[in-house]
Design goal:
Elements: H1 3-37, H2 56-64, H3 74-77, H4 90-100, H5 129-132, H6 141-166, H7 173-205, H8 212-237, H9 245-281, E1 300-301, H10 302-315, E2 323-330, H11 333-340, H12 342-360, E3 365-370, E4 373-379, H13 383-398, E5 400-404, E6 407-409, E7 413-419, H14 426-442, E8 448-451, E9 456-458, E10 469-472
Parallel strand pairs: 1-3, 5-10, 7-8
Antiparallel strand pairs: 2-4, 2-7, 3-4, 5-6, 8-9
């Protein structure tokens, strides 16, 4: 055998050995990556809690003993509001709305995921019953107390707004004046308690530099509310029973609505503060509850949504799987409040929440971020599919006739869609959504924009041939 032949055989043997070694290494690395992302060995999605498949119940039971869930299970979609937390007629309204939408009657989750907070505010991030028994921290206690005062004041604003809207003739001037006097007195009492609580909050947060942005936002929300209270106080005090009742009545309704809007803003800022304080006080690795619900609509709240994103990033650090998110925002909600009253608009938001449930069930999780803004959490879903779903929701709401007594409401929504990038912080993700939503508003509202990384782009509305719906609020 010649030297050249031996040399070739040695080189071939070495190459073959190196090939096997590289293949074994890459195979091991791929298995590790897919395991951390929750994928099967063939690259398909594994059975995660919240993922809908024929074997979902069994898979969820297995997973709960091994790892923390990424998204809510299907039972959470059907969770009924807690009877002690919501207004007495809320459970019936959920069932009635679901029936009008052709869905199932909501039922309580056996696992207890339907727990609600005991706050009376529509958007609540309060802890669950098991957590509520624990004493609040020095940083959280003034937030909870201020939320309670804001909710009490909101109840008075809603009560006065209803009184104004039911008094439409000159003969009711005395009743209108009495309602204004009661609101002025309640406002002064509210301001006294709010200032005391804000002072306590500032003292407890003094040494927490990480909460400075939230402190600034809270101070700005309070300043905005004070300005509106000052302007509305002048209008209310100027009411004259012998003057133009119709004009004064209309102005009183307008200012009551503006007061409620600034109160909503303060409430949402307090909810944001509660989230940040909770995150700062939470031990490393300690998960937030995924069952936190929005009290008004019965769907997930912002805390649950942000926790889903955080857990998703922990489970899929390499960005192998796809996660799309969307934001759906009701257009001109302030004008709707002024025209129909906050109580009616709350019912409208509840109905829109039920529309989201009926459209997204078994596809993705929906949450109410704050006020009139909702979000969709869509695991293992490409942006194209989520955009189609969002367009279906947008067009459904556009074609729906909402009736409140003799009034018909025809709201529209603006939408934004984007996808999570590998190693991206959730604040960057929501910033892109905010930018796309802003473009949708600037482009005339009632639009959907997508943000694929460079800049927001409009979606050409597909012809889905949807039928008109009629919903009684």
């Amino acid at each position: 055998m010649s030297f050249f032949t031996v040399y070739v055989m040695i080189i071939a043997t070495v190459n073959l050995g190196l090939g096997f070694a590289v293949s074994a290494y890459l195979g091991k690395r791929y298995r590790l990556m897919t395991a951390s992302a929750g994928l099967n060995a063939d690259g398909t999605s594994g059975p995660l809690a919240g993922q809908c498949s024929a074997s979902a119940p069994a898979a969820q039971g297995q997973l709960s003993d091994q790892s923390e869930p990424v998204s809510a299970g299907p039972s959470q979609h059907l969770a009924a509001p807690h009877s002690e937390a919501l207004p007495s007629d809320s459970a019936g309204e959920f069932a009635r709305l679901a029936a009008q939408l052709g869905g199932e009657k909501p039922t309580a989750s056996a696992s207890g995921d339907a727990e609600r907070s005991s706050s009376a505010s529509p958007q609540s991030d309060a802890p669950s019953d098991s957590q509520a028994a624990q004493p609040l921290s020095a940083a959280m206690a003034p937030i909870a107390a201020m939320q309670h005062e804001v909710d009490r004041y909101q109840h008075k604003l809603t009560e006065t707004d209803e009184a104004f809207r039911s008094r439409i003739g000159p003969a009711d001037a005395a009743e209108i004046e009495a309602a204004l006097s009661g609101l002025l007195a309640a406002t002064e009492e509210y301001l006294k308690h709010r200032e005391q609580l804000h002072k306590s909050l500032e003292e407890s947060w003094a040494a927490k530099e990480q909460l400075q942005p939230v402190r600034d936002e809270l101070a700005e929300a309070i300043r905005s509310q004070d300005e509106q209270i000052s302007a509305s106080r002048q209008v209310f005090q100027a009411f004259h029973p012998q003057g133009d009742i119709a004009a004064q009545h209309s102005e009183a309704i307008s200012h009551t609505s503006k007061l409620a809007n600034t109160n909503y803003r303060l409430r949402d800022t307090l909810a944001e503060a509660a989230l940040r304080v909770s995150a700062a006080e939470r031990s490393p690795g300690q998960p937030e509850s995924l069952s936190a619900k929005d009290e008004l609509t019965g769907i997930d709240n912002r805390a649950a949504l942000e926790e889903r994103v955080r857990q998703w990033q922990q489970r899929d650090p390499h960005g192998i799987r796809r996660l799309s998110l969307a934001v759906i925002d009701v257009d001109r909600c302030s004008k709707l409040n002024e025209q129909y009253g906050h109580k009616v608009v709350d019912k409208l938001l509840r109905a829109i929440g039920q529309i989201l449930l009926s459209q997204t069930r078994d596809v993705c999780d929906c949450a109410r971020l704050a006020g009139q803004r909702f979000a969709l959490f869509c695991p293992d879903a490409p942006m194209r599919s989520v955009t189609q779903l969002v367009e279906q929701i947008r067009q459904t709401i556009e074609l729906t006739h909402f009736r409140a007594g003799e009034q018909e409401i025809r709201p529209t929504v603006s939408c934004a869609v984007t996808a999570l990038r590998a190693e991206e912080q959730h604040r960057e993700l929501f910033s892109r959504l905010e930018g796309a939503l802003h473009e949708a508003k600037l482009s005339g509202r009632n639009r959907t924009f997508v943000h694929e990384g460079d800049y927001p782009t409009p979606v050409v509305p597909p012809n889905l041939a949807l039928e008109e719906k009629h919903i009684t609020l």
